[in-house]
Amino acid sequence: MLAVCAATTLLSAQEQERVVRGLRFVGNKALDDYTLESAIATTKSSWWARYPLVRWMGLGEKRYFSEIEFRRDVVRMILLYRQSGYMNVVVDTSVQRTARDAYVTFRIHEGDPVRVERLEVKGLEGIVNIAKLKRDLPLQLGDPFNRFLLQASADTIVARLRNSGYPYAEVLRNFDSEAGILKAEVELDAQPGPRMRIGEVLIRGLRRVDTSAVRRVMSLRPGTYYKQDALYQTQRDLYGIGVFNSVNVQLIDSVPPQEMVPRDSMVRTLIQVQEGSGHQLRFGGGYATVECFRVQSGWTAHNFWGGARTLDLSAKLSKIGAGTSTHTTGFNQFCNPFAGTWTIDTLDYQFGVTVRQPAFLKRAHVLTIGFVAEKTSEFGVYTREAIGGNVDMTFNARSHLPFTVGYTYAVGRTTASDAIYCQLFRLCDESSRKFLRDRRQFGAVSASIVRERVNNVLDPTFGSVTTVSVLHASRAVGSQPPYEFNRAEVETARYHLIGRSTVFAWRIRAGTILPRNINLNGQAVGYVPPDQRFYAGGPTSVRGYGRNEMGPRVYFMSDTLSYDITPTGDTIYRGVITAPTGGNTVVILNAELRVPSPILPQRMRLGLFVDAGQVWERGERVVATNGMRVTPGLGARFSTPLGPVRIDAAYNGYQQERGPLLYVATPPNPIVVWRSSYPPVNAQKTFWQKVVIQVAVGQAF
Fold first, then answer.
1. pLDDT confidence tier of residue 260, bands split at 50, 70 and 90
2. Which tens digits make up the pLDDT trace of 281-313?
3. How is residue 574 annotated by DSSP?
4. What is the pLDDT of residues 41-59, one digit of tens each?
5. Which of 258, 306, 344, 539 is the most exposed place for a label (fewest CB within 10 A)?
């Protein structure tokens, strides 16, 4: 006995020493490699542990060969094929063994499948359109007799009945399969049971929340025909109001005999809830490339004044510290809090009060009212200070296309560089620039439609997101001149899962602004405040450009005596500052392939991408498409609790965007155009200057 145990232990040790370097399937057509790999225990090692050129490094995950599980895999594969309709399948194997490695091959002869010759659905006469229902079933006439699709077809009929007023519907599955003649006859016998309406809805577990608030939110309406989806929707909606830790919605009546149930009888349902804390306090802090140190806090009151409404108080401070970087790309883009002298003028803040009322007017509508005092700034572009409020109404918030209409009113001002006002709007005198910087009223009506169908908000692998938004600002809705314009933007992104973990994603974003011309200093100006204009470039846009650095720009300086002369005779001024002016038209195109990394594939992925786009100042044209820029690149994504952390390197072979060079003296001196085109055409970039590094948290789109 001891000798046998010792031999068994030695054999197991020898088996464990063999690493599965290769795993192949030959001859499979009905089932792909991914499905077969998922059904067996033998799995191949990771890429770095399989290929001879790199496996000597000892990287990657090694998976070991088990003789016992390998033999069982043959049985598993035969059962899977037979369940899929291939009763005559034959699986042969070959294993190439070395002292430490194993190369496994499964050779499959599928044979001809047993096909569905007859498919009948009974018991639904006069209830549903049977011909249409049969067309919607996963298992169709002439298909291989797949047991999994047979179960899915039965589930489809049950779901259809339970959403048509039959809460106790069941389906019996009958089939006759003959492997010899490769034919199967399938019969789905539906037992719909009585058609019933929603009767009494019991609600238990409430302590602070009013029963009327729950009834206003729930989708169950007494007197209407029973729908299974209404139970699920009620559960989701009650979770969504943030009051309950647990919600369970179920029937409380047992299955009655059909002959004992009168026509249009009632079924009782129970909503069992467990209330959570009535108040929630949160704190947060962080460090970012542009915002430097930031802190935020909030307090939320659930079921505020009853009615399941929510009151939220929030506060946020950012750009705390000194040394905000003057770069928008590379590893030197990070804010350095130990450089320079920080002043309170650089601080951004936001204080807000928001009240959210679910089930407003109708249970599917949501009303939100907010008040905010804020100071926000965009790197190198503008600073916005305002106080105001907004009212948003979301119609059919639970539908596939929720529609939101809102109104915003604020009193504030937006300031930008004097050079931007001079170049973009031809307002180079101090009085005109002061007029644009004055505090004024801004009122706008907006509308948006969002269709979100992704499997993960932070890191989607399949699905799509589409957003369409429009905004109108004019005196008719409370805006003062020159804040009068129309703005429209559309964005769509799609994600395609390739194989087990490779994702191909693409995005299209386009927008346009139609300003209303106003008369300033004797000239017609189509003014759009800097905070409403379009900008592009950065880690979530075209990655070959720094943040907001794509499109029109202006250069300015305050010292004309500090310069260098290049060998070609061009003048390069020192101390020149770049100011993006943005545009009234934008087009952004992105495509990205995300693949697992050969090193730590569960924690790291690689990305190959191509970004294209441009920002234009359209002028009198309705559209503009000239000057598109294309920047390819690659990067790495690291999984963290905060989401994917990205490091991207994009190649930008274009010359630096040219614009006018202005001399901005001390007010009230006028601004002077020092050079009509800057930098010089002959200014060349080195290779490393063409490589743009972007660091960010979260996927680009």
1. low
2. 999 988 777 778 889 999 999 888 877 889 999
3. T
4. 998 877 666 666 656 666 6
5. 344
At 483, which amino acid appears?
Y
Give residues with Cβ within 8 angstroms of 304, minimum separation 6: 310, 311, 355
User: Rounded CA gap, 209 and 216, in Å?
Assistant: 12
Return the H-helix or E-strand segment holding 181.
none
What is the spatial distance between Cα 491 and Cα 233, in angstroms, rounded to a whole number? Answer: 28
435: pLDDT strictly greater than 80 = no
Closest to 312 in 3D by CA, of 273, 360, 350, 363: 350
State whether residue 83 is helix, strand or coil. helix
Q: pTM for the full model? A: 0.76
pLDDT value at 496 more than 70: yes
Maximum CA pair distance of the chain? 107
pLDDT per residue as tens digits for the range 666-677: 777 777 778 888
Identify the residue whose tokens are 């559209």. 623
Banded model confidence at residue 117, pLDDT cuts 50, 70, 90? very high
Helix (H, G, I), strand (E, B) or coil at 244: strand
At 355-365, the pLDDT tens digits run 999 888 888 88
Order of all β-strands in the sheet with 672-678: 577-580, 553-557, 659-663, 672-678
Lowest mean pLDDT among 202-206, 252-256, 388-392: 252-256
Phi/psi at 50 (5° precision): -105, -45
Pick the CATH number of 115-191 from 3.40.50.1000, 3.30.70.920, 3.10.20.310, 2.60.40.1270: 3.10.20.310
- Residues in contact with 701: Cβ distance below 8 Å, sequence separation at least 6, in sequence order: 493, 505, 507, 540, 590, 592
- Classified as helix, coil or strand, 37 is helix
Q: Please list the residue range(s) of the chain that carry CATH number 3.10.20.310.
A: 14-109, 115-191, 196-275
| Among the listed residues 549, 602, 544, the one whose alpha carbon sits nearest the alpha carbon of residue 578 | 549
Q: Which two tokens stand for residue 207?
A: 């302590």
Residues 6+ apart with CB under 8 A from 582: 381, 530, 533, 534, 535, 548, 551, 552, 615
- Residue 10's pLDDT band, with cuts at 50, 70 and 90, is very low
Say which residue the tokens 């690149």 belong to.
633
| pLDDT of 314 higher than 90 | yes
Fold of 196-275: Ubiquitin-like (UB roll) (3.10.20)
* Tokens coding 618: 């359209």
For CATH 2.40.160.50, the residue range(s) in the chain are: 359-697
36 within 8 A of 500, measured Cβ to Cβ: no
Q: How far is CA 466 from the centre of its chain?
A: 10
The average confidence (pLDDT) of the chain is: 85
CA dist., res. 666 & res. 683, Å (int)? 30
User: Is CATH 2.40.160.50 what the domain over 359-697 is classified as, yes or no?
Assistant: yes
Other Cβ atoms less than 10 A from the Cβ of 63: the count is 19
> In the CATH scheme, what is the homologous superfamily, with its name and number, of domain 14-109?
membrane protein fhac (3.10.20.310)
